[in-house]
Write a structure and sequence with these properties.
This protein is of the alpha/beta class. Helix content is about 45%, strand content about 20%. It is built from 13 helices and 12 strands. β7 (about 140-145) and β8 (about 150-155) form a beta hairpin. The chain starts with a strand and ends with a helix.
């Protein structure tokens, strides 16, 4: 097992290893003053792991409740959020109790937001069951739900109390979910030179999964700790996301998050090369990594469709939009573009 500490305003521990689900109660109990626990989970994840988490929490002295909802990005809505909050209210939860978000990034976002909003905030313990959530979404304190206008349009910054990444849960993941996680890990490798890049180049990166997750979270955690409100250096973590979120929205969320971010990274990197901001080796490195992990480097949406989706992006400020541009493998920078220039970037990258 590996453990890292995220040095946010309220530091918290992230533990990574197999068998952590069965230890969740014992590890969480010292951090929670109250003894009510709400498990928030999608139907599929709850059917696989809900009983094990319930048993662990009950053994630690918690009275356990659950709010189970349909699985999928399309359920990341204000309606599902309110269902979680109403469940907390009906069960008589107070600010000393806790929400346990069991699942992928969708559940982590909604459980974290529900915990932050109910009675102005109670503890949230995250138990990511996907590689994407473990290596990226579980850390940083971003919580949100989608609106009809776009992805993650309603949310707050709220850090979890504890993150437990049980890698044993990944055994049930279909290939598409593995790809989602590798996309975010590839993104992180473009932000800082180091061992993560070496491990991705290994013949069997899966053999180093715990270390890869820890390295990815250390990078994200350091950026988030410096810039919890996402106004400065943390914006580098959005590499591929401006275009990626537009692809997701334009597809009606038929494109997975990882696939959309992968294509988004490639589109921006090709445009950056065309504008002389990075070398062709940067393009080749990214496209080779995406190919290795069976991720797309292109999408078939027209420029105007993507621009329409980007109009609602959180990174747009008046008539400007921020994009993250690679300068080399391991070094990126944020560019703030006039809105009118974004179409040119898409022309060059698509």
């Amino acid at each position: 097992m590996r453990e890292i500490v995220i040095q946010s305003a309220a530091p918290y521990s992230v533990r990574i290893g197999e068998g952590l689900l069965e230890k969740a109660g014992a590890l969480s109990a010292p951090l929670i003053q109250g003894r009510k626990a709400m498990i928030a989970a999608g139907e599929q994840v709850f059917s696989l792991y809900g009983a094990a988490l319930r048993s662990s929490l009950e053994a630690a002295g918690f009275a356990v409740f659950d709010c189970v909802y349909p699985s999928g990005e399309e359920e990341k809505t204000p309606e599902t959020l309110m269902a979680i909050i109403e469940s907390l209210a009906r069960a008589g939860f107070c600010r000393a109790d806790a929400v346990f978000g069991l699942g992928g990034g969708v559940t982590g976002d909604m459980a974290g937001l529900a915990a932050a909003l109910y009675q102005r905030g109670l503890a949230c313990i995250l138990l990511p069951t996907t590689l994407l959530a473990a290596a990226d979404a579980s850390v940083g304190g971003k919580t949100a739900v989608n609106l009809s206008s776009g992805k993650n349009q309603m949310g707050v910054f709220s850090q979890p109390r504890l993150v437990l990444c049980d890698t044993g849960c990944f055994q049930s993941l279909p290939p598409e979910h593995w790809k989602n996680g590798w996309a975010e890990i590839i993104k992180t490798s473009f932000l800082r030179e180091g061992k993560l890049q070496d491990l991705l180049a290994d013949d069997e990166p899966e053999a180093y999964l715990e270390e890869i997750i820890a390295l990815a979270l250390q990078t994200k955690g350091s950026f988030a700790a410096e810039d919890e409100r996402d106004c400065g250096r943390r914006r580098l973590l959005n590499f591929g996301h401006t275009v990626g979120h537009a692809i997701e929205h334009a597809s009606g969320y038929c494109w997975s998050h990882g696939a959309a971010v992968a294509a988004g990274m490639a589109i921006i990197t090709r445009a950056a090369y065309a504008k002389g901001l990075c070398g062709i080796d940067c393009v080749h490195t990214l496209e080779a990594l995406l190919s290795r992990f069976a991720l797309p480097a292109r999408c078939d949406f027209e420029k105007n469709v993507l621009l329409a989706a980007m109009r609602s992006d959180k990174k747009r400020q008046d008539e400007h939009v921020s994009i993250v541009v690679p300068r080399a493998y391991g070094r990126c920078e944020v560019l703030v573009l006039p809105w009118g220039e974004l179409g040119d970037w898409l022309d060059l990258g698509l």
